Fold:
Amino acid sequence: MTCDFVKDTSEKIARMEIRGAGRIARAAAEALMRCAETSKSKTAEDFLKELEASGNILVGARPSAVSLPNAVRFVLHRIKTSDLDLPQLRELAIETAADFIDASKKAVEKIGKIGARRISSGDTIMTHCHSTAALSIIKTAFNQGKDIQVIATESRPRYQGHITVKELAKNGVPVRMIVDSAARIFMKEVDKVIVGADSIAANGAVVNKIGTSQIALSAHEARVLFLVAAETYKFHPATVVGELVEIEERPAEEVANPQEFGGVVIRNPAFDVTPPEYVDLIITEKGVIPPQAAILVIKEEFGWAIPH
Ligand code: RUB
Structure:
């Protein structure tokens, strides 16, 4: 048995009504919290089974952001390793989900503060897609009075760049929008690229919105710093034992109507992988690390979740 909140949240995640790795993670924790609050299970065993089944549904909603399974794991691990009766277990599940949500929001704030130290007055920053963590750095630096400019890609096919541009403009940050394919021509004006992450593998490779790796490549070519803003729950425990991050392929219709092209195949991968060689720093809420230290973050934060 699973609850309605879980079905509703996983549908919203799949439809991208709830999107962005951090928001997805917080929504999953909240669904589990509501599930625990309203559960009609009569025994601790049934309650655990219900939450586990709910967790599996949530995890199946989208494959590439590890923040989703990490949020579910965080809640389930704490309740599964306790030895409590049903009312206490319910309380613990609610408390743990709330802890995750709270820690996640604080992490984004902390990343803003830590990352802003890397931004200087006069910097032009390029960003791609819509990342709350990357924007936290940009907005914090701007609010500290640093004179910065932003160049944001529109991020086809779902145009998450529009959200970025509107959010920055609303906050008074000077921002220009470009088509994704103009990233290289503008790179000569850029001092730093800052993007978010959906997953970070044990070798420091960064999975983020499709197009990120091309931007990283042109930043590398132009010797522009490439920074990734990522909470520690974006690090992927199973990559330690060789699991690959699944790259979500979304419907062709998001790109164009195949019928208008005589049924031609249209591919629509939603994410790509930026190799660690193109990443200068990863900014987490625990501090700034080189991509080569990703394995240490995974061992420290998710050692218990690394599959045997
Ligand atoms: C969003 C995306 C974002 C990361 C990080 O993809 O790739 O860069 O999720 O975002 P989609 P945040 O729109 O397909 O979910 O920093 O907000 O977690």
The chain has a mean pLDDT of 97. Residues 19-22, 65, 129, 131-133, 160, 196-198, 208-209, 270 surround ribulose-1,5-diphosphate (CB under 6 Å). The longest strand covers residues 149-153. Residues 117-305 form a domain with the Rossmann fold fold (CATH 3.40.50.10470).
